[in-house]
Design brief:
Layout (H helix, E strand, L loop, with lengths): L4 H28 L24 H12 L2 E6 L2 E6 L2 H9 L7 E2 L3 H5 L13 H14 L8 H17 L4 H18 L9 H16 L2 H9 L14 H30 L6 H9 L13 H19 L1 H14 L15 H13 L9 E2 L4 E3 L2 E3 L4 E4 L43 H18 E5 L27 E5 L5 H9 L7 H5 L6
Parallel strand pairs: 2-7
Antiparallel strand pairs: 1-2, 3-4, 5-6, 8-9
Helix pairs in contact: 6-7, 6-15, 6-16, 7-12, 8-10, 12-13, 12-14, 12-15
C-alpha cells in the first residue's frame, strides 16, 4: 500500500516553520533586550548543576564571585538563579524596588513537606499581608519587652540543665527556645524533651530542614514524579519523607492549638499570640500556624551552637566578654535586658556569631513579580534569588572578630547584621524576638559558664576541626568541649541564689508562675 506523502510532508514543513520562527523570536528577544547578568556557561539540560557543591551551594556562589562579580546568573537543572553577592545590590533591589522583589518562588516541595502554610514561603499577596499584619502586631520591636520575663526564665532554666548535663548542650539550647516560644505563641510550656508537643515540634523541624535542603529540592522540582510514586515503591525516599512530614505538620498545628482551646475553656489564658488571634478572628484553620518552626526558631537553636563553637575556638574573645560582664554586672546577679546597652562587647559577639557562619546561608529565595533592568542587566520575571556573604565588607571572613562591630572607643557600629534576617518587605517578622532570645541566652551563658576544648588522657587539648551539617539550616556537628561553671565552689547553690529558682522543685512548675502582662 502506498502512503500519501502529502499530509506527512505538510506536517514536517509546519513543524520546521514553527521551529524556525521560534528560534527567530528567541534571537530577536535576546538581542533586543539588555543582556542577562554574567555567569558560568550552562550545559544542556543540566545547566550548571555539575559545577555546584549541592550540599553547600553557597560555597560555590562565593567562589564564582571572584570571576563574575556581585550578580551571577546561573541555571540549576531547569531553574534559573540570580545570586546576589553584595549588600548594596540587595538593598537596591529588595528595599528600593520591594514592590516587585517581594514574591517567593513557589515549589511543589512546599506542600509535599507541609510548609505551604508557613508565612515565610507564602507568595506575595493578600493572604501573606494578613499573616504579616497579625504577626507584626505581636512581635514588633515595641512589644518585645512584654516577653522578657519568659525569655529570662527560660535562659535560667537552660543554665540549670547545662550545669547538670553539660555534654547534652545541643538539647538544652533547643529546650531553651521551645520553653520561651511555646509560651509566647501558645501559652504552653515545654515540660521535657519527651513531651508530646516538644516531640511533634522537633520532629517536624528536622523533616522540614531535610526536605528543603537545596539539593533535595532541585531533584524533586526537576523530577516531580519522585513525589508521585507510591510510598511502598523501592527507592521512593522522597515520597516516604513527604508522608511523614505531612503527618508531623498536622500534629504541630493541631496539638498546640487544641491546648490553647482547652485553656480558654477551663482557665483564663495568659497573653499569647494564638489566644489573641482566636479572639480577634475566631477559630479558623488559618490560625493553626506552626509559628515556632519559622526561621527565628531554627536560627536561634543553630546560632547558639555556632556561638559555643566560637567560644571554644576563641578563648581570648570569651575572656573579653567575661571581663565586660564582671565589670558591668558583677558576680552577685545574672544579666538581664536592662544591662544590654552597657554590654557592647557581648552585643558584638552576638553580631559576629550571626555573621561568622550564617545558619541559613542560602536563605529563602525571593522572586520577581515582573521583569526588570538593573545596572544594564535584564532580570526575567519569576527568577530565583539568593543572598550570600559579602567578603568585601568583612575582611578575613573566616576569623571570629567581634571587634569588627566596634569603634575604636568600644562603642557599637551601626552594622546590626540585618542581613541574617532578610531584606525589604520579606524581612523576618520574628527577628526582634529571635535576637532578644539569642542575646539573653548568650549573656547568661557567659556570666555563669566558660567553654573550653576537651582534654585527652594526658590532659592535652583535643583539637577541634569544625564541621557543619547540610540542609536548609546548618549547624556545627558535634565536637568535643568542656562547659565549666565560673563559680567552682558550690555552683548549684550559687546558681540557685542567682536565679531564685529551686533546682529541687520541678522548674517547669516554677515556670508556670511567669505571666506575660
Amino acid at each position: 500500500m502506498i502512503l500519501d506523502a502529502g499530509p506527512i510532508l505538510y506536517l514536517a514543513i509546519s513543524a520546521l516553520t514553527i521551529a524556525v520562527l521560534s528560534c527567530c523570536r528567541n534571537y530577536w528577544v535576546n538581542h533586543s533586550r539588555p543582556p542577562l547578568p554574567p555567569g558560568p556557561t550552562p550545559l544542556p539540560v543540566l545547566g550548571n548543576f555539575l559545577s555546584l557543591d549541592t550540599a553547600r551551594p553557597w560555597l560555590t556562589f562565593n567562589a564564582w564571585r571572584s570571576t563574575y562579580g556581585d550578580m551571577i546568573y546561573a541555571r540549576l537543572l531547569s531553574k534559573p538563579v540570580l545570586v546576589i553577592n553584595s549588600e548594596e545590590v540587595a538593598k537596591d533591589l529588595f528595599e528600593g524596588r520591594s514592590s516587585i522583589y517581594s514574591d517567593r518562588t513557589q515549589s511543589i516541595v512546599y506542600e509535599a513537606f507541609a510548609t505551604d502554610f508557613n508565612m515565610g514561603f507564602m507568595p506575595y499577596g493578600d493572604r501573606w499581608r494578613l499573616h504579616r499584619r497579625l504577626l507584626h502586631q505581636a512581635f514588633r520591636q515595641a512589644e518585645i519587652p512584654t516577653y522578657h520575663a519568659v525569655q529570662i526564665r527560660s535562659a535560667h532554666q537552660m543554665l540549670f540543665s547545662l550545669l547538670q548535663d553539660p555534654g547534652n548542650h545541643a538539647s538544652h539550647f533547643q529546650m531553651f527556645i521551645l520553653s520561651s516560644v511555646l509560651s509566647m505563641i501558645y501559652d504552653c510550656e515545654a515540660k521535657a524533651k519527651d513531651d508530646h508537643i516538644v516531640h511533634a515540634v522537633t520532629s517536624y523541624a528536622e523533616m522540614v530542614a531535610d526536605g528543603l535542603a537545596p539539593a533535595a529540592m532541585m531533584l524533586m522540582e526537576t523530577f516531580p514524579f519522585l513525589l508521585q510514586l507510591p510510598s511502598w515503591f523501592p527507592g521512593a525516599i522522597f515520597k516516604r519523607a513527604s508522608v511523614k512530614c505531612i503527618q508531623a505538620g498536622h500534629d504541630v498545628k493541631e496539638i498546640p492549638f487544641q491546648h490553647v482551646k482547652e485553656r480558654m475553656v477551663n482557665f483564663f489564658p495568659r497573653r499569647s499570640f494564638i489566644v489573641f488571634s482566636v479572639i480577634r478572628n475566631g477559630e479558623s484553620p488559618g490560625f493553626r500556624w506552626p509559628i515556632i518552626i519559622n526561621l527565628p526558631f531554627i536560627q536561634t537553636i543553630s546560632l547558639l551552637r555556632v556561638f559555643l563553637l566560637a567560644m571554644v575556638l576563641n578563648p581570648e574573645v570569651q575572656g573579653k566578654a567575661h571581663a565586660e560582664i564582671n565589670r558591668v554586672v558583677g558576680k552577685n546577679r545574672l544579666p538581664d535586658f536592662n544591662d544590654r546597652p552597657a554590654l557592647p562587647y557581648v552585643e558584638a559577639v552576638l553580631r559576629e556569631t550571626l555573621r561568622w557562619h550564617p545558619v541559613t546561608p542560602f536563605g529563602v529565595p525571593h522572586a520577581t513579580t515582573t521583569s526588570d533592568v538593573y545596572n544594564g542587566y535584564f532580570i526575567p520575571k519569576g527568577i530565583f534569588r539568593a543572598m550570600t556573604h559579602d567578603p568585601k565588607k568583612y575582611p578575613s571572613p573566616d576569623e571570629f572578630k567581634p571587634e569588627r562591630f566596634l569603634h575604636e572607643d568600644g562603642s557599637l557600629t551601626s552594622d546590626t547584621m540585618s542581613l541574617a534576617f532578610g531584606w525589604g518587605r520579606r524581612i523576618c517578622v520574628g527577628r526582634h524576638v529571635a535576637e532578644a532570645s539569642s542575646w539573653i541566652a548568650i549573656v547568661n551563658f557567659l556570666a555563669f559558664f566558660s567553654a573550653h576544648k576537651d582534654l585527652d588522657e594526658q590532659g592535652m587539648d583535643i583539637p577541634v576541626d569544625p564541621k557543619f551539617s547540610t540542609g536548609f539550616a546548618i549547624h556545627p556537628e558535634t565536637f568535643p568541649c568542656r562547659i565549666l561553671p565560673r563559680f567552682p565552689d558550690a555552683p548549684m547553690k550559687t546558681l540557685t541564689y542567682l536565679t531564685g529558682l529551686n533546682p529541687y522543685v520541678d522548674i517547669t512548675s516554677e515556670f508556670q508562675k511567669t505571666n506575660i502582662q
